[in-house]
Amino acid sequence: MIEYNDNSEVQAMAASILSGLITKYAAKTIEDLPENEAVHICEYGCATGGSSIEPIKAIEGVATKRKLEIIMNDLPKNDWSTLKALIEKKFPDIKFLYSAKTMYSPVAEAASIHLGFSCFAQHWLNGGAPTGLPGDALWANQLSPRCPEHESWQEASRDNWQKKLELRATEIIPGGRLILHIHSSLNDGALSERFATTLQKAKAKMIANNELSKDQALDLLVPQYCKSPAEIFNIVCTPKINSLWQLEEAHYQQLLCDEQLEQTNIQKQIKFLKGFMDSTLKLSLNTPQLTQFWQHVIELASEDKTALTSNGMSTFMSLKRRQ
Question: Which of 39, 95, 304, 319 reaches 20 to 30 Å from 28, CA-CA?
Answer without folding.
Answer: 95
